């Protein structure tokens, strides 16, 4: 690298830091809002289709697996409270550029792809909610316009972004509470069959273990999101103190909601009907309270839910690029911070540009199977990352830092590796083979980008001001 590179590194070092604007309440709503989303609205019926009335079991198992990994994340984020999350931890633990780059790329892809799919769903729900008969091209333009709005909110500032998240979280939470309350009303009135919630039924003569694993692989997509919060560490007030309590509280709240939703859904609607419905929660409300205008409300509730997912995922992706640019794993230009707004504006623009390309691709064939298995593929990629994160905890035990941090113990990270790997491997997870095909293509693309990054001369060594310098 020449003088230009040195000057760029100095600019990154001297650039303004991110604004610490997230307190405990905003962080809790960020985590809850990121976990809650389109997954539970769409996957409840499919989970029930795998295990019958005991649909609540896979959600509990998914919560347990997520909690194990959350303990590992808590040790690492309180030990190294910087943006970049899993990629940063892999970089510190192994120092292998290709591993760091691929972790960064996988997490970024999962966020951007989910946000892109959510923006398309937002546009479709907008058209449905207002009764508009629009062409596929118009829906595409609405989706791109929506993503542009997300970019504007993101550039505006993390305070504004997280406050918008608060509003959207409350809206999507109200939809799930509506399902629970109407479900309880039906149960109390004798219009539901609680005995169904203990009936275990497995299709295709699967063993009980494989059926639960397959259903958990689906349900886990509804539990992901807590890991996004670690990418906001540099914008959180006193992260070493508040992260453990807030992350575990957020996971607990969402687990209770998911179990109650799945119990009410199976008690009110027969499993066969629920599994075949594309909008299972709407079917639950229509069955329990036929006169309730859910058909008019659901598109708008879903619209807010997917909008929240898009906003949070784009927040995560942009902070991930920013953090890794600070670590020299990506070009330093991606670490530029807006001097007035104190937001990583270059990373935001780049991730939005990628999302535009993905939205356009998805919109070319709305019925593509790629869209239908996006949730499973995202879950597959993130569970692979979680295996690495749990391993990083064990490797980094030898690294000492000069401040107090959370400790996950010795057993939890090991169990975390085993359980995450169980839900990744094809013989144990029962996943659709196409999920592995899509993941393979993404990894191949990541390797190509890694080779390009190496040719540009970025060796992945941490910048001097980043080594062992946690931001408090």
From TrEMBL:
Its main location: membrane. It is a multi-pass membrane protein. It comes from Kineococcus gynurae. InterPro entries: AA/rel_permease1, APC_superfamily. Keywords: Cell membrane, Membrane, Transmembrane, Transmembrane helix. Signal peptide: none annotated. This is APC family permease. It is found in: Cell membrane. The chain crosses the membrane at residues 26-43, 55-74, 94-117, 137-155, 167-188, 208-226, 246-271, 300-322, 343-364, 370-396, 408-426, 438-456.
């Amino acid at each position: 690298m020449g003088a230009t590179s040195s000057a760029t590194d100095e600019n990154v070092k001297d650039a303004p830091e991110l604004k610490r604007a997230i307190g405990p309440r905003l962080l809790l709503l960020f985590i809850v809002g990121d976990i809650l989303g389109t997954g539970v609205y769409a996957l409840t019926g499919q989970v029930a289709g795998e295990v019958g009335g005991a649909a609540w079991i896979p959600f509990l198992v998914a919560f347990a697996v997520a909690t194990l990994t959350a303990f590992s994340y808590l040790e690492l984020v309180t030990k190294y409270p910087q943006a970049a999350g899993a990629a940063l931890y892999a970089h510190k633990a192994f120092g292998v550029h290709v591993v760091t780059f691929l972790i960064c790329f996988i997490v970024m892809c999962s966020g951007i792809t989910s946000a892109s799919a959510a923006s398309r769903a937002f546009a479709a729900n907008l058209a449905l909610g207002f009764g508009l008969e629009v062409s596929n091209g118009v829906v595409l333009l609405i989706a791109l316009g929506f993503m542009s709005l997300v970019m504007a909110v993101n550039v505006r500032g993390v305070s504004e972004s997280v406050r918008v998240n608060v509003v959207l979280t409350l809206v999507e939470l109200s939809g799930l509470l509506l399902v629970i309350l109407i479900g309880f009303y039906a149960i109390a009135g004798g219009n539901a069959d609680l005995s169904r919630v203990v009936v275990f039924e497995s299709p295709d003569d699967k063993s009980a273990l494989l059926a639960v694993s397959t259903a958990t692989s689906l349900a886990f997509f509804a539990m992901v999101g807590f890991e996004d919060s670690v990418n906001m560490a540099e914008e959180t007030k006193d992260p070493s103190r508040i992260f453990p309590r807030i992350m575990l509280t957020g996971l607990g709240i969402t687990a209770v909601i998911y179990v109650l939703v799945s119990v009410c859904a199976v008690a009110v609607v027969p499993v066969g009907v629920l599994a075949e419905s594309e909008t299972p929660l709407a079917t639950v409300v229509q069955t329990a309270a036929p006169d309730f205008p859910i058909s008019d409300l659901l598109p708008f509730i879903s619209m807010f839910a997917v909008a929240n997912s898009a906003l949070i995922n784009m927040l995560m992706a942009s902070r991930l690029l920013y953090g890794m640019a600070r670590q020299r794993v990506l070009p330093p230009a991606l670490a530029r911070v807006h001097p007035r707004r104190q937001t990583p504006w270059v990373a935001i623009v780049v991730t939005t540009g990628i999302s535009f390309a993905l939205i356009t691709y998805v919109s070319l064939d709305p019925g593509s199977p790629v869209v239908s298995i996006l949730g499973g593929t995202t879950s597959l990629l993130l569970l692979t990352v979680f295996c690495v994160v749990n391993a990083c905890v064990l490797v980094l035990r030898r690294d000492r830092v000069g401040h107090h941090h959370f400790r996950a113990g010795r057993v939890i990270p090991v169990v975390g590796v085993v359980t995450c790997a169980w839900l990744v491997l094809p013989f144990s997870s029962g996943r659709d083979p196409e999920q592995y095909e899509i993941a393979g293509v993404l990894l191949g693309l990541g390797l190509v980008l890694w080779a390009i990054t190496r040719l540009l001369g970025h060796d992945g060594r941490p910048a001097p001001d980043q080594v062992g310098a946690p931001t408090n």
